[in-house]
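The instructor's notes for this session suggest beginning with a concrete chain rather than abstract definitions. Hand out the sequence below and ask the class to guess, before any prediction is shown, which regions might be ordered.
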Amino acid sequence: MKNKKILIVGVTGFIGYHLAKYCLKKKWEVIGFSKNKPRDIRRLKKIKYIKGDLFKEKDLHKIKDKIDYVVNLGGYVDHSNKITTYKSHYIGCKNLSNYFLNKNLKSFIQMGSGGEYGKIDSPHKETFRCKPKSVYSRSKFLATKHLLRLNKKYNFPCTILRLYQTFGDKQAINRLIPIVITSCIKGKKFPCSEGKQYRDFVHVDDVVSAIIKCINKKKANGQIFNLGTGKPIKIKKLIILIRDKIGDGYPDFGKIKLRNEETLKIFPKVDKIKKLINWKPKTSLLKGLKKTIKAFEKQ
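After discussion, reveal the predicted structure:
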């Protein structure tokens, strides 16, 4: 049997790195597509790296291989520029899916966002009737609608994973858990909000396992799945937990003001993904934090 070929868009990012690493272990051929070169910490051997921008359709023609699976993790992490955010998360997805429309893909996985639900109260249940608030969330929702139209009209084999917060080894240090871990390792005082928000955190290993399950299950085609644990934690409790695990660090609660429009409770129902593709998170928050802290201490 020929090796499976997977195209990972955004391979130089946090989730892309972990997915690529997993696929290489399984002897899959990995082609990475990204606007930037990988940082040394996330560079992997045996990956064919292609530099390109999804917004530029001509760049997609650099992909010469016959691809079995596409996983779209692409898009700007910085959402301050509204036009760039819209282009990278919606137009980019549209260009990518249209490019592969008649290329006999087995699976196209789109990394969506729990933010697509917007003003809908938690726990979120998978629905097509969403009220996204930010440009980023609206762009993700437009991408979801586009893909499901392709699925309905052309039987395009897409799956949307609406991801909540993820964490793990080699995550950028501008995210909550890495900020807290690195500050505590250094014994620093660091600003925080009051920490009264509730958020759902899923370990990156479980995110990768969900992607692989969706690739391998025909039942996943044309579906939207929430990707989280369904067990939110209060941010203040999370910060104190990390501090206590490390034994140092001084969180300055209340120093950062909450945004006026910030939703206090954001978390998903995960019954559908458990039932339909038999996925559930295997890494508990405590186990995941322990692994992540250990990795950051080594770094």
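Then share the key points. The first helix runs from residue 14 to 25. The domain at 170-200+230-266+283-298 is CATH 3.90.25.10 (UDP-galactose 4-epimerase; domain 1).
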